[in-house]
Structure formats: structure tokens, C-alpha cells
What we know:
Layout: E1 2-6, H1 10-21, E2 25-29, H2 37-41, E3 45-46, H3 50-54, E4 59-62, H4 67-76, H5 79-82, E5 88-91, H6 97-109, E6 113-116, E7 119-120, H7 123-127, E8 131-135, H8 139-150, E9 153-158, H9 164-193, H10 198-210, H11 213-223, H12 233-249, H13 255-269, H14 277-292
Parallel strand pairs: 1-2, 1-4, 2-3, 4-5, 5-6, 8-9
Antiparallel strand pairs: 7-8
Active site: 170
Keywords: NAD, Oxidoreductase
Domain 6-phosphogluconate dehydrogenase NADP-binding: 2-158
Amino acid sequence: MRIAFLGLGKMGSAIARHLIGAGHELTVWNRSLDKTQTLKSAGANVGGTPSEAVAGAEIVFTMLMDDTSLVHVVYESGLLAAIAPGAIHVSLSTISVALSDRLTADHRARGQDFVAAPVFGRPNVAEDGKLWVVAAGADASIQPVRPLLQSFSRGVTVVSEKPSSAHALKLGGNFLITAMIASLSETLVYAEANGIEPALFLETINSALFQSPFYQAYSKIILNPPQPPGGTIGLGEKDMRLFREAAHNAGVKTPLGDAFAAHLENAIEAGMRDEDWAAGYYRLAKAKTLEQQ
């Protein structure tokens, strides 16, 4: 298939490589041109602008950081007008429910299709082709897109025909990740205060209670922060803000989400925006405990 891929951060680059490996004709674009060179060497074409990249594409993937980045590319850089009628825009990013609804309506008005397909997993999981994709959109659009999603994932959940439902699910999932990080951080501070070795505490709790690869992986991240970070405090704050906005618009209160958001905002104020989401959350929780002693 003729595919355009816009946004070559750590996640986007990994996903794009899987699409090339699956034999598709790929044209890539990124704001920083240097990030396109590895994919060019692997056989991808490079578009000088978003509009050039999507010319003639049947499927357009975007993997951009946030609402602001996606709005800039789609609306201010002319992507919406450049996508061909009948083509499908697949948003892999974690974006707001409100923007997802806007994109759905605006693509429909131009005879284009929109599929939401945010992914669960860090960059190392994307490299291994083991992301989990949450997809939503019209069945006629999901069908041609699904084999592409499967080329870089270990599973695909189709939520409904309303694209924003996939973004709502992803935000709910990221809330649960933050809840796990927060609870691990607080109990680690508690364990250390009682003279318990953090690694022993985490190993025992996971073996006795959760038996979860996810808890195991995040326990390692908290104690041994990866460099560079797989997910940052800044991304965590963005996702928590979007979760609370979507909940508010649906008439749902989020007392836990409010507390997590305040902690993440404090971390950013402390200069930790680019630190690892999990390790940074724990470091701030530990620092606050020491301040209170």
C-alpha cells in the first residue's frame, strides 16, 4: 500500500520501520529532517512538507506528540486539504476526545476517513512490534487498516465506529498507569522508611499479589530509570489533563486524577518535565517525604 507516515519520534520511527519491513511503499515526514535519514536508508521516501508526504497516499499515519502538534500539521500546514478523497487518516497519538471528534467531522466533510488507533507501550515495545492498538472507526475503514496495525502490534482492540471512543479508552488506560506509578511510589517510600530494601519489596509484592509483567517492568523503571526516558513527566501530565477534561465533559468526577495531576504539575515546576514518568514521579514523592521530616 502507498502509506504516508508523519511524526518520527522514538515511537513513530519504530512503527515506520515495521511498515517498511512489511513491504509497503512508505513516504515519511518529520519536522526535524535528520530523523528521516535512517528510514530513507531503509527504503522510505521523504516528503519535504506534510502535504508532499501525503500526495497519493491511501493511508496517512500521524504519530505526533499532542493536540497542539497535530492541529498544526493537520490544519495549519495544509494536511487536511492535501489528503486525497477516500484516503484514511490514522491517528496513533494519544490526543483529546474533543480533537478526535473534530478530526472525524472535518475528514468526513472532505470525503476522507478517520480512524483512531492510539497505542499502549513504550518505545522499546514498539521496536519489538508488540504494542497493543486500540482502534475505532467505520468498519469499511478499519478493515484495510487492521493488517497494518497488526504489523507492529501483538493485538488490536476495535472499540466502536466512533473514533473518539478509542482515544477515550487510551486516556483511561493511561490514568491506570499513573495510578499504578503513584501507588508504587508511595509504597516504596513507605518500605524504605521501614528499612525494607526497595527491590525486595517490589519483587515480593509482585510475586505474592499481582504476578504482572507490567508491574515488574515499571518496578525496574522506577529503580533504574532508562536513558533516554521512554515516557516523560511532560507526557504523563498531558495525558492526565486530557483524561480529566474528557471525564469532566462526560460529567464524571476524578478525585484520584486530580491528585495525580497536581503531583505531575509539581514535578514539572521542579524542572522534571523531561525525566522518566515513573522514576520522576517516585523521586518527587521521596523528596516531598524528606521535606516533611
